[in-house]
Fold each of these.
Amino acid sequence: EDQVTQSPEALRLQEGESSSLNCSYTVSGLRGLFWYRQDPGKGPEFLFTLYSAGEEKEKERLKATLTKKESFLHITAPKPEDSATYLCAVAWATNKLIFGTGTLLAVQP
Amino acid sequence: KAGVTQTPRYLIKTRGQQVTLSCSPISGHRSVSWYQQTPGQGLQFLFEYFSETQRNKGNFPGRFSGRQFSNSRSEMNVSTLELGDSALYLCASSLTTANTGELFFGEGSRLTVL
């Protein structure tokens, strides 16, 4: 069964403490992997698209990487404003998009 | 540029009733997709419309339906509401099809079924 799994479910960091979030997938025929950020009471906001293994994208303190079976969202020296739920989504050959259940990140000052 | 607009933002219904939710995409976007978000299941794909045609459908019962108008605005309808339909319903628009690029989400319609 095609699946997208995110870990950990929740992560609490101190300000400045770098870490990584994981998104693993078991779909075949990957068309793209997407990262989104969702703040409470808001819709998800697009962060990155990755298309092939080895690809990397960066934006401020965030860096997304992709392998054949998983993607990592690295957060370097996070700040309290980085607190949010981070979602990954995978598009594959059936033209559908599957979202993971997300990682709730809390960054304490 | 105006974002994706969803109405209503909040609504309360009782079991057995029906509800219609509306989504106005970003100007020029032809794809509108709908998602149900619940704490236990996360974001689940309902359906996608592209140029007024349903392009894809998720694994939801036939009580969930949608349509898209010529101006790309979309509506989704849920008939015979059940308690388990309580959720945040999110609409997203994109320039091309939903699985090929960046999705722009609205803030959602929060449905409570009593």
Amino acid sequence: GAVVSQHPSRVICKSGTSVKIECRSLDFQATTMFWYRQFPKQSLMLMATSNEGSKATYEQGVEKDKFLINHASLTLSTLTVTSAHPEDSSFYICSAIEGSQTQYFGPGTRLLVL
Amino acid sequence: RKEVEQDPGPFNVPEGATVAFNCTYSNSASQSFFWYRQDCRKEPKLLMSVYSSGNEDGRFTAQLNRASQYISLLIRDSKLSDSATYLCVVNRGNYGQNFVFGPGTRLSVLP
């Protein structure tokens, strides 16, 4: 299947700092990428849909000014968690659509905010 | 009521057993359906898409019942490596991609 990478895989930061997570589709172009968050023992929750060349669409309850999304090219979307707080600690996973509606996920980024 | 529902389990079964999971969805306009598996602390990986005619991939069989709005996954001859959480995923469609995940069903295959 298609390959999606994420970087970094793990990050620890101090409260109040900003963290950028990159999501890349390595062998295909993705006009749409998704950002999810998963807390322990819970299912994935969609945060936003990232569209190349246009503004992201955020799910209800997700602050667009806190979670900045930039989809600058057909192979790269970034999520920046601004002024991170301990409650933002979570597993952040991106995915990209390849061809016929199949989602492929990146390996995820574990964020720990101290 | 959640849009996509699954029995969270856990399902504890012996090696070699057959186990079945169901998933129900509430949005009748949903257009495509998938089963993913997620190992602990890993990303979800596509197991199989689900078609109205039913589809089989080795020991795995998936079926869709649009009238009753449920999806099933059958695993035959369970292996230890099948232990994971199985996620039912529904694409609402409607002019864009709009995926909704079920809470997952945890399976433990025991030696």
Amino acid sequence: GAVVSQHPSWVICKSGTSVKIECRSLDFQATTMFWYRQFPKQSLMLMATSNEGSKATYEQGVEKDKFLINHASLTLSTLTVTSAHPEDSSFYICSAREFGRALGEQFFGPGTRLTVL
Amino acid sequence: AQKITQTQPGMFVQEKEAVTLDCTYDTSDQSYGLFWYKQPSSGEMIFLIYQGSYDEQNATEGRYSLNFQKARKSANLVISASQLGDSAMYFCAMRDGAGANNLFFGTGTRLTVIP
């Protein structure tokens, strides 16, 4: 299957700092990338959907000024958690759909564990 | 209303036995896709199997098969010949027209394979 990478795999930061997480599709072009958040022992919750070259679409309740998403190319999307606070500590997972696929599978990155002190 | 329902928070299976993980879904669309993902303790989401709503045959991928019962709106995952490495969280998900891009995930089932 297609490969999606995320960097970093884990990060610890102080409250008030900003953290950038990168998501790359390594062997395919992703027209759409998704950012999910997963709290311990819970399911994945979609935060936002990003399409290359356009603004991200955020889910209800997700602050777009806090979670900045940039989908700069067909292989790269970034999520920046601005002014992070302890309640932002979570597992962030990106996902990508391959260009040209219809209802096909969606590939996930390995996730980034963010801990805000 | 929940789009995806997984009623089994945890399941146990003996090694080499088969196990069925339940999933029911709710949609008014005719065109939709159903997915199963495995999430081991490392956190990565591993795609297992996909079933399209128009597919007449149940999807199979190696030891995984999807028991698709459209009238009942169920898409149960069957794992045959369970292995210790199958111990993980399993999530059922759906994409339909309403959430044209989004995958709606169920709450997951934790499967433990007993040696």
Amino acid sequence: EDQVTQSPEALRLQEGESSSLNCSYTVSGLRGLFWYRQDPGKGPEFLFTLYSAGEEKEKERLKATLTKKESFLHITAPKPEDSATYLCAVSGTASKLTFGTGTRLQVTL
Amino acid sequence: ETGVTQTPRHLVMGMTNKKSLKCEQHLGHNAMYWYKQSAKKPLELMFVYNFKEQTENNSVPSRFSPECPNSSHLFLHLHTLQPEDSALYLCASSTSYGADEQFFGPGTRLTVL
């Protein structure tokens, strides 16, 4: 059975204080690893797909990386508007997405 | 309208009521999904429709009944729900089942009294 574990559960940063979120996974035949952002009361918003170890993708202050066992979402010089819950999910040979419980990020002034 | 829309956004119902959730996608996708999101739990996949055919039913109780009349519309019919069914119900779509990223609607916040 595919599994995703995200850490930390919650993270509080000051504006400009860079950090990383972790997503550890086990999956049968990785087809893709996905990062989403979810604001309170809203649906998840797609950020990145990573397909193979060593791949990296960037979008504004976010950078996602992938190894054979985990993915990191690096946040550089975050701003208050980056506050949200970040979800990680994997898709394997079973095709369906398996999600983690997310990391709740709060960025303060 | 663009993306994935869901109505209603909020729903309060008694345990004996019957109600329906509606989802519509404007992305030209062929796969649609229902997820349940409860506090402190990962998103739980409930149902998958691919080209209007149900391909997954993730051991969901029969008080939840999905319907997919075409590739753009998905319904979730609710009857005799329990308080533990209170959650955020999310609809998503993708180009096809097993394809890359899924795109989510804003969700329906359901409260069962």
